[in-house]
Specification:
- The protein is built from five helices and no strands.
- It is an all-alpha fold.
- The longest helix has about 35 residues.
């Protein structure tokens, strides 16, 4: 894969990651706004240290598919496709669940900011895997399957 296509694939995964962060930010503000409007005071949100680490790791993991897309190896491309697809699916499901609970605008935002760019990233990753030569080494030479 040439450098331009590789960079484009990584950029699409990064756009999906930015969409997930934008969704999370708006979801938090929407939750706080609804809580403050109905009760007059925002309830205290108490997180344990483990919960904060899990949330940080989950949103930090969005960088992994973009970084793996820069590696021109079939294994890295498969991991990028599978891991990125799981992240898109989990974040979309949580967005739909939060939207049902907190308001329909969050469902629309999750579909717009996460699922739409995520589906483009998954399609581009799949197209890249389908078009790459299975038997070709990164240098362009053929790999011998017979171990003699």
């Amino acid at each position: 894969m040439d450098e331009k296509r590789q960079s484009r694939l990584s950029l699409v995964w990064l756009i999906t990651a930015v969409g997930a962060i934008i969704y999370a930010t708006i979801q938090i503000f929407s939750y706080l706004n609804a809580s403050a409007g109905s009760h007059g005071a925002t309830p205290a949100l108490n997180f344990t240290a483990a919960q904060v680490w899990v949330i940080s790791a989950f949103y930090g993991a969005w960088v992994i598919p973009a970084l793996l897309a820069l590696i021109d190896r079939p294994t890295a491309n498969w991991v990028s496709l599978i891991f990125g697809g799981v992240l898109v699916a989990l974040t979309t499901l949580s967005g739909v669940f939060d939207g049902i609970r907190d308001g329909g605008h969050l469902v629309f935002l999750a579909l717009l900011a996460i699922t739409l760019p995520g589906s483009f990233a998954i399609a581009m990753s799949w197209r890249h895997l389908r078009n790459c030569d299975v038997g070709a080494a990164p240098s362009g030479r053929m790999i011998s399957i017979n171990p003699r």
